[in-house]
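Re: the 160-residue chain
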Amino acid sequence: MKVGITGHQDLGSQATVDWVARVISHAVKQYNVTEGLTCLAAGADQLYAEILKGQNIPYIAVIASDNYEKTFKVKSHYENYLVLIAHAQQTIKLKFSQPGETAFFEAGKEVVNLSAAIFAVWNGKNAKGLGGTADIVQYALDRNKKVVHFNPVSRVVMEI
């Protein structure tokens, strides 16, 4: 199954990151993920790509805009982005000249459009800006896509 990811960039403590990694790894097997889609943002997107890469499952990188690299505030996130984009089986870059909320929203929508289901690493709250996790989850639900919700706060996994 082709499964995309949406999720928070800041996942919290190392214990929470480890929990998210465990439940996503399990879900990749449970849902028989054969190909992934990710925007390669810091946090959930990069973690998903790392898991797929580690399991030799191909993924497509959906890049929001030209100059997307400028969005990385932490050097290690940028360096990881370079490794992960080089490993992507395909890269789709949207036609925005600069990163911004509209570009991020469109990239998230593209991930949903190309996926049979979505993994959402989401605290259940409203998005802080256009194109946030809540917006992408709602977009997926509006298109009758299966959404597997990994709540890093309550540590509950459920289909919605």
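The chain is about 40% helix and 20% strand.
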